[in-house]
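Re: that backbone. Tokens:
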């Protein structure tokens, strides 16, 4: 049994900052890639940032220069530091992790429950 739990939801003003955290727990054998995705009202879920186990990060063009993804492998935790927030960043943010569960040989995608981020103008 594995789960991802996000924290850091909030309502912030445009130009403000917010930090999201996501902790993976359970019978984890290994964590490969971790990332953040978001779904705005009326839109499809889209990738925001992904980071490999080695620390290589990629970002959606819309957040480059404003968001920073990082991870603490010892704590199975991924973070998303969001600066210079814009109203268009308003969305439900989902944590994602590619993991291998103890007792299995394959890797699978796991998702958090989502956390609401609202940016007011």
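Recovered sequence:
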């Amino acid at each position: 049994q594995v789960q991802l739990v996000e924290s850091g939801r909030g309502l912030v003003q445009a130009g403000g900052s917010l930090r999201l955290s996501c902790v993976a727990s359970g019978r984890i054998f290994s964590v490969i890639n971790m990332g953040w995705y978001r779904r705005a009202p009326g839109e499809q879920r889209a990738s925001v940032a992904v980071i490999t186990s080695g620390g290589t990060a990629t970002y959606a063009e819309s957040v480059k220069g404003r968001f920073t993804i990082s991870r603490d492998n010892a704590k199975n935790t991924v973070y998303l530091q969001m600066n210079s927030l814009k109203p268009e960043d308003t969305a439900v943010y989902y944590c994602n992790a590619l993991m291998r569960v103890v007792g299995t040989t394959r890797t699978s995608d796991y998702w958090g429950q989502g956390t609401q981020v609202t940016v007011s103008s």
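The chain has no helices and eleven strands. The first strand starts at residue 2 and ends at 7.
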